[in-house]
């Protein structure tokens, strides 16, 4: 729900652009990684920020003062994705060493489990809302579902796609999984049975670089490598909104929904900027400049109007942006 | 929810055994309010709670004082408490999230059935039905038991005096009676040996109404549907009867009192019968005319649309499913192990049945992938459709390029945040429901890490071993007791030799004592087994695999 503290009406109910958009301003730059940063994510309680990098480590930052809390080492190869459990106690990282690791986000910050089974780079990972299961997608073209408690692989969806899987996400009640892949398709799976329920896109190109459910689980945001972001009502299979203007042809850039104050779509871009679109009107509201290389990952704080973004090799920093107050 | 994209043509009841769960010898099962957790009582006195989504054990409740077989388990409304009745005449109330014992009491007789009051969020009041005495209300807080009347005395105007002691009423010796709470927990419906349903106000220990069951044979089970609209009785004459509940959902006591006041000119038993006829009406009767079998554990489906009854005649494991109109829609046949308990999942078309050997079988629909799922513009048709081509379809026209006419209004407002009200949440949301037990990852130990690294190297080399290792959960029942069910996972047939090996390994470990610590160990050892099997090593239990 929007925090509404700024006294500005939110998108729903107002027609036209009568709402004044408050621009985001750069707050802080975080340094600490020695290679491209593949993913940043805020925890659900808003107290922590985690970042994963190709330098094989993951860093835990405080989301209040952005100090470095802990650096997780253990993977033998670069980390491509990370996910938070719903209670903000655990994170899971997906790495090119074909494993996933579950880390404790509380002292002593141990690596609790190593999930083995994939036979190629693990590219994407997510917890389900009750956080008793983890879904992962890999270059071995399979999707695996793991039990958090014991680490055992509960299900393997083989031949899920015909090329590396770029993104996996559970919906709100954990009954569905959406997956996107380089083979250009975006599919919805029944989480319990592992059967394919629907295919959203099936063109060979462009590749689907990212897919996730909206907060209420009714829509899917899909990013494709032709610099387009689409919002689809998956029940009808139709794309109802299209967001363009950014550049996304090479990297699997993550996008996010911003709902704390006004509804926006936020995404990184290969022109080194962070883009913000109005959800309903699809207009570009702001381009955040400052990074010196492609912005690979963005995340929105669950409670405050803050965005964290991270960039590629030449930059290696995380930038925090905060919306101006009234 | 995913309702819009799931194929509506599939029936809403299970068809095949999907999996089985094992933990010692299970005696009885119960789902929590949403079906996310399954509690089961074991023959050794412990109680295990499975996370039904992951099919892994979430908690084990073990009482060192109690080593007798559990006779029933019952959840509180929001899933915070669990009531367990055991063969040593005890009733134990557990707090589910902490795993602590809240209270324990011992009765005079072994309770066959014990149910927590479904109307309260933290109930300490329960209904217990012992083997050979009247059903009683046990209050853990006050620490007393109240016997409920089982029959209405023939003399008019005599109300059974409230009894706070444990001695039996004067009169004929008791035969077992079945009892259950109504949906909001302020009335108890008792089915007695004379074939009558008594509606009892347990607080004042009065019988408010009486409904005679046709045929007059003893009532063995009495159960409400989840929404409280239908009542099911299972009688000794092997007939299951469905009654429609005419009383309103709220303020039931007052309505009953009013009904009683409005009945003039009759007293005593006749009055009760008149009031009773306004509370319940007979809706349907089910029986198997051919074999006339005794039904075990009959109950409703979660949405009340289906009625299920189990049969254990001649040691078989059969589940009969009727629709509420009385048509028998399916008979599920399980392995040759007598069925002892049954539960229908509150939300999904899933049935859980317990066999005499202590295994919990999970029945689910046979999922076949829908062809229309594979491409975005595929649609499933019920029958062939004649294709009518467009007027200009075959005209020779220069290609103007594929113009996809977008029929969607792109300016429509999109709502990404509101969630529809959950059909399963009741209006009282002041208490938070316990849906899941937090999954805390069990830390790997160092030796496991090294073992698994070896396996990892091997797995990347050999293509055949990509299968997930499952602890005793056999999804492909090729090597299980009955071969018929092996067709469930036709698409995922594995190499039988490998599967048999894994099963052997798991069975060898699983047959040892149950309990959480041993389970962890068996998992570790199980992994070792796989390691050795892959590396060609042998084990004392099994022969060399390769």
From TrEMBL, chain A:
Q: Where are the WD repeats?
A: 30-71, 72-104, 115-156, 158-199, 243-287
Gene Ontology, cellular component aspect: Set1C/COMPASS complex
Q: Which domain of life is it from?
A: Eukaryota
Is Repeat tagged as a keyword? yes
Q: Where is the WDR5-like beta-propeller domain?
A: 29-322
Q: Name one Pfam family in it.
A: Beta-prop_WDR5
Q: Mind listing the UniProt keywords for this protein, alphabetically?
A: Repeat, WD repeat
Q: Which GO terms describe its molecular function?
A: histone binding
The record ties this protein, via InterPro entries, to: Beta-prop_WDR5-like, WD40/YVTN_repeat-like_dom_sf, WD40_PAC1, WD40_repeat_CS, WD40_repeat_dom_sf, WD40_rpt
> What is this protein's record name?
WDR5-like beta-propeller domain-containing protein
Source taxonomy lineage?
A: Eukaryota, Viridiplantae, Streptophyta, Embryophyta, Tracheophyta
